[in-house]
Specification:
Elements: E1 6-11, H1 14-25, E2 33-39, H2 56-63, H3 67-73, E3 77-79, E4 81-85, E5 93-97, H4 110-121, H5 131-137, E6 165-167, H6 170-184, E7 187-190, E8 193-198, E9 204-209, E10 214-216, E11 219-222, E12 239-241, E13 250-256, E14 267-272, E15 275-281, E16 286-292, H7 299-309, E17 319-322, E18 326-328, E19 332-333, E20 336-338, E21 344-345, H8 352-369, H9 377-392
Parallel strand pairs: 1-2, 1-11, 2-7, 4-14, 11-20
Antiparallel strand pairs: 3-6, 4-5, 8-9, 9-10, 12-18, 13-16, 13-17, 14-15, 15-16, 18-21, 19-20
Organism: Paraglaciecola aquimarina
InterPro entries: FAD/NAD-bd_sf (IPR036188), Flavin-dep_Halogenase_NPB (IPR050816), Flavin_halogenase (IPR006905)
Protein name: Tryptophan halogenase family protein
């Protein structure tokens, strides 16, 4: 007799839902579960996350995607790092570049050696020693080269030390991964949840939809955004607020035309009056936004400050997005796992929101492959460690 497969239900589409679905749908026929994703037409995703960090290639490699095809379909560009501007004082800039910095000198890490000798040499910038930063500022791009055969570990080859990530249109990324997931066999339902049925154990047993359909499940994944339709509203899990560490609580997002045919291979993070603004270059447009603390500036003042700083002509209206910094203490509670904004948010400075989505979707997949559906302790402990490490950074 064939063994009955367990049912996984994902609530919410957008980046979080479709990244999670794509990971769970890999080799779906060989798994011991089925996957259903429920997406509401009446709830629009935030859709401003357009930058990533190098570990996104762990997602691309896991899904066995062709990155050239992916980039072509998501309006993508490559990213060597984050350019910080005006943070310590007006006119100063610094590239937080990806990849290796220099090589050890007499077993001393290059960064330590540079700090120890900078005052003697008069060096004021470490940027020239970052291959990725040098490439980015010179409008060059090439994938990381393999190390020459027979090279010593201490030999430094700049083209072997390049590391990069992607900029992309979040809505196009969700569309790309939705097609991938549905092709792999997940069930996609377009409807809105009207009722959540809880069992006596406190677990979620089923969701009732506005099309009168009832969807049963063994494991529910909450990708419903910051509202946390399941994990917060039904299971009453609370976010530990981190506003005392990260006081920014609003963002204004707007898209503009590109002003040049030469597209920078880096994200910009530029200091502003009450926060900072991002500039993310895609092939067809530029994503912009102002992350600010409403305690020090009004929404209208922030909007005017952002509009005055734009390089290109706006092609969308400014969109104000309120948020609370902090994370759930228990993102996996009972039979519900929160992934994405439902689990928390720490601000977009280092493009870690999307990173946390695929990081924990991959971790969940591994646990399910190990047939470990009950023990949530390692997942929750890892989540706490990773999010606090990012908060402190």
């Amino acid at each position: 007799m064939a063994r009955t497969k367990k049912k996984i239900v994902i609530l919410g589409g957008g980046t979080a839902g479709w990244v999670t679905a794509s990971i769970l749908s890999k080799n779906l026929a060989q798994t011991n579960y089925t996957v259903t994703l429920i997406e509401s037409e009446t709830i629009q995703p935030v859709g401003v996350g357009e930058a990533s960090i190098p570990p996104i290639y762990s997602l691309i490699e896991y899904l066995e995607l062709n990155d050239s095809d992916l980039v072509a379909n998501v309006d993508g560009t490559f990213k060597y790092g984050i350019h910080f501007e005006n943070w310590s004082k007006t006119g100063e800039q610094y590239m937080h570049a990806f990849g290796k910095l220099g090589t050890e000198i007499n077993n001393i890490p290059f960064l330590d050696f540079w700090f120890k000798t900078a005052h003697q040499t008069g060096a004021t910038s470490i940027t020239p020693f970052f291959p990725s930063a040098v490439a980015a500022y010179n409008h060059k791009f090439v994938p990381q080269a393999p190390r020459p055969k027979g090279s010593k570990p201490t030999d430094f080859y700049p083209l072997c030390s390049l590391s990069f990530a992607l900029h992309f249109d979040a809505s196009l990324m969700a569309k790309y991964l939705s097609e991938f997931s549905v092709k792999n066999g997940i069930e996609h339902i377009t409807a809105t949840v009207t009722h959540v049925q809880l069992a006596e154990s406190g677990n979620i047993s089923s969701l009732t939809l506005d099309n009168n359909q009832q969807v049963d499940g063994d494991l529910f994944i909450d990708c419903s955004g910051s509202v946390g339709r399941l994990i917060k509203q039904e299971l009453n899990q609370e976010v530990e607020e981190w506003s005392k560490y990260l006081p920014c609580d609003k963002a204004i997002a707007i898209q503009t035309e590109n002003v040049s045919d030469s597209i920078p291979s880096y994200t910009k993070a530029i200091a502003m009056q009450a926060g900072w603004r991002w500039q993310i270059p895609l092939k067809s447009r530029t994503g912009n936004g102002y992350v600010y603390c409403s305690k020090y500036i009004s929404d209208e003042e922030a909007k005017q400050e952002l509009l005055a700083s734009l390089d290109g002509k706006p092609i969308t209206e400014p969109k104000i997005i309120p948020f609370t910094t902090g994370c759930l203490t228990t993102p996996w509670h009972k039979n519900c796992v929160a992934i994405g904004l439902s689990s928390g948010f720490m601000g977009p400075m280092e493009s870690t929101s999307i990173h946390l989505i695929y990081r924990f979707a991959l971790l969940l997949r591994k646990q399910l492959d190990d047939n470990n559906w009950q023990d949530n302790s390692f997942f929750n402990e890892t989540f706490a460690f990773e999010t606090k490490r990012i908060r402190d950074f």
